[in-house]
Each structure stands twice: as structure tokens, then as C-alpha cells.
Amino acid sequence: MVEIKTDASIEAMREAGRIVAQALTAAREAAFVGVALSELDRAARAVLDEAGAGSPFLGYHPGWAPAPFPAVLCVSVNDAIVHGVPGAYRLRDGDLVGLDCGAVRAGWVGDAAVSFTVGRARPADTRLIRTAEDALAAGIEAAVVGNRIGDIAHAVGTVCRSAGYGVPDGLGGHGVGRRMHEDPGVPNEGRPGRGMRLRHGMVLAIEPMVAAGGRDDHYTARDGWTVRTADGSRAAHVEHTIAVTDDGPRILTAL
Ligand code: MG
Ligand code: MG
Q1: Can you give the CATH number for the domain in which 31 is found?
Q2: Mind listing the pLDDT tens digit for each residue in 45-71?
Q3: Which residue range forms the structural domain that includes residue 231?
Q4: Please, are residues 244 and 143 in contact by the beta-carbon 8 Å criterion?
Q5: Using alpha carbons only, what angle is made at residue 196 by residues 135 and 207, rounded to the nearest 5 degrees?
Q6: DSSP symbol at 230
Q7: pLDDT over 70 for what percent of the chain?
Q8: What is the tens place of the pLDDT at every residue in 176-214?
Q9: Is there a domain that residue 1 lies in?
Q10: How many domains does the chain have?
């Protein structure tokens, strides 16, 4: 079931979203060659603590996972697409880093992700990240009243495929509200004009993922969480939580 949010609820979700943006910024600013991924989690956690916000990631334990998620931040490096666990690994020159963070404030959730490189960027990674960002912008642009979920999915997928990249199967966006994952699902590929019609008050996480090798398949690493490309190629992931409104899409997880 899709929960339609009131305008007051959307304002409250904007506060949660702003905290997510601040946490992602802090984690990104902590990301240098030689820094352990656990330090990035610590930087994000400090922002959530300071803001009096909780984490929808910490302790998250879906049925398929062997253990609760141990951090407030997912850190996915190089061939990791999403759900990377921030541990002892130290960043190396040229690593491609994806950060995904959530916050809960006054009972409302925000969810967003960024990708970037540390040290000397490979041109191929810069193009990969740019494509994910372009796909996100296209998806947001399609998130207007009267369109359908398939229009968002089609906009995202078209940008990713046109660049020649893989679109990881079965991974994508979702409704957001009092819970991190609500209906409807927001796939990264789809047919225009299909799926649920968009209404004022729907809040959605749109999250394109692209795989440089052009393949869509992936596997879960032995930690039970990290999702990696099957061919070992690099992946990028970006995400915003947005509200569909009569005045157009509103990004709730901007700074
Ligand atoms: Mg996320
Ligand atoms: Mg999400």
C-alpha cells in the first residue's frame, strides 16, 4: 500500500533528508587515500548524533541477511554496487566510492547516496559517475503528477543503457516514509506509461546504479551484505529521496 504524505509530513521528511545530506557530506569530506572505511561511518554517525537523528541502517536485518547491518553508512568501493559494510579496508588511490546513508528524525526517514573517486580519478570512473547522476536527474524530472512509475524507470534506464552500462537486476528505488522501504518499488528500468500513477504527496527514493562492464548480474559477497558486479567491473550508485508535488518534484535530501 502506498502512503500519501501530507504537506506537513513532507516538511518533516525534508528535515530528515537534510540530515542525510549533511551526514553524506561529512563522510565524503573524511574520504582520503589511506583512510579506513570505518572512519567514514564514524563521520556520518557524528552528524546523526549531533542532529538527534537515528539510523534506519544500523541494526537493519532483512530476512536474507545473515546478521544485522553494523553501521549507519553503506560504503561500496569499486566493484561493490551497494550495501558495502564499512570495515578496516583503507582507501587507495583511484578508488571509486559509493556512500549510502539514511536518517530517522521525528519518525520520518530520509535516504540518499553519492558516488565519487578518491585520489587520481580514472576518466572511465568519472564518466560512470556522471552517467549515474544524469540518470538520477532524468528520473527526478519524470517524477511529476500524472506520470507513472514506469516513466521514472524508463528515464533512468534509458540514460544508463545509452551510455553502454549494465543496470544491476532487481535493485532499485522505493517509497520512503516512516519506514525506509515502502511501496511502490521504483525500478531502474521500465516501460513508459506503465505502473502506478504518481500523485501529490508520494515520496520516493530514486537510485540509479550503473555497472561499467555492461552486465546486469551480481552476487552477494561472503559478508552477506556487499553486492558486487559479477564481472568485477566498477559500479556507481546515486540516490535522492524526492516528493512528488503539484509544483513538481522536490528533492528532500539536498543539503
Ligand atoms: Mg539509500
Ligand atoms: Mg534507498
Answers
A1: 3.90.230.10
A2: 999 999 999 999 999 999 989 999 999
A3: 7-62+71-251
A4: yes
A5: 25
A6: T
A7: 100
A8: 999 999 999 999 999 999 999 999 999 999 999 999 999
A9: no
A10: 1
